[in-house]
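FAQ: What does a multi-protein file look like?

Like this. Sequence, then tokens, then the next protein.
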Amino acid sequence: MILSIQNVVKQYDKHTAVDHVSFDVPKGSLFGLLGPNGAGKTSLIRMITTITAPDEGVIFFDGEKINSQTPEKIGYMPEERGLYKKMKVGEQLLYLAQLKGLTKQKAKQEIDYWFDKFDINSWTNKKVEDLSKGMQQKIQFIATVIHRPKLLILDEPFSGLDPINTNLIKDEIIQLNKAGTSIIFSTHRMEQVEEMCQYIALINKGKNVLYGEVQEIKNRYKQHLYKIESNDPFPIELGNHFKIHAQTENSVIIQTENADQSNLPLKFLIEKQVHIRSFQELLPSFDEIFIRTVGEHPNS
């Protein structure tokens, strides 16, 4: 495991921001850290990056208890970006890279690599305040990955980006992951979780209410819904035998009591000589799972 959170607690005055949270992040994975506003995600990230310390519990990074050297192995891009507005882009990246332990020569090599990759060499002497929000986002991303960390923590990484730059950053994240970097996403955009993440932890009111592998969770929350499409109209008596959630002339969504009954509507329609064009199980989206889980744990 690249990261192991074990029974961690964090309190501020009388408020418990993180309440006995435990989960593991597998090495080399894309991991989604989810939760509504105020759930405790930022407090958890601050402990992982050693900005604050747990009141209880322990956090292990790459097999060792987190310590003063841990931040050099982590890249953290907060939702509230932290660039120095008056500094020139090249000077700022050089400064931030050296803070992460790179030599001046190595930092310049990495800056050249990323500037060539993003085709932004002309930005070197521009001040951050003169860049658009999307351009600043690219610089923030470079500052986060320039020291080639073992773990990336990205808080709403696509916020403020247009579709073209979103895809650009997304592709780079995927390439970094393929090269072995472990990545934690903290995001509200569930479609990105479904598309990119292999594992998730859902935090609500300081507690971990859902954790596991994405596909396994989707299977766990499925409601045995099946969409059937046909070239023929569906027989009227179909609704007398099965629970119908939606229906048009040539498609129908049917719910069965369990997975063992999935073939029953097909058998019925074939007996009625209905030509079946397609049959697929409908798994819940992560938007649906998120809403259901948070609703099931309102006082967690």
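And here is the next protein:
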Amino acid sequence: MIPLRDSEATRRLTPANTLLIVVNLAVFALELTYLGRELVRYAMIPALIAHPGWLHPVHAALVIATVITSTFLHASLLHIGGNMLYLLIFGPAVEGRMGPRRYLFFYLVSGTAAGLAMVAMGPDSRVPIIGSSGAIAGVLGGYFVLYPRGRITTILPLFIFIRFVEVPAVFYLLAWFAVQLFAGISAGAQGPMMGGVAWWAHVGGFLFGIAFAPLLVHRAKPKRRTQRR
């Protein structure tokens, strides 16, 4: 199911969320140029994060910074397109409860937590990890806990037909999480990145979002964009 919109955002283009989307798109545009070869150094390599003592202190600090920088890199148009769609759908409502500054902090810390989850699951892996999906998983976890009554309008492909279906956000996000967890567990001996996807970053980011988001919300809850009888 492909998400199209949610029922809880008071507006779609919020400051911090829009800034994150623009920065991600700008970095991807750079990746498509000759500078893309230079940007590879900003990918996260779990083995280097797990064993920074192998490196010179200055180099070690730069390597640790890749936990954040890697979240702004993407492998393909499909990769960034899917991630930015989820950020556009779920981010505004979460930012609405936190405010721009707290939301930006939440996003970056969620990305860090997701990256460290990958390091924990594959501390000796030298496969570079990139993508914002771990940070966005944190946003999904935040939405899950902050908007238990939210609803998501989705596209449901049925062979040659397309249906628009509105489902409870809790159901949608639980189903999404179940897929990530199942895929991570199924990786088994194939390693934590079966199929080139950092499944455990998604799992770690989502769980972190559930735990941390309530600590950053403002007390007053904004009015819902849609009213239901």
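Q: Is there any per-entry metadata?
A: Some entries carry free-text notes. For the entry above: The first helix runs from residue 15 to 31.
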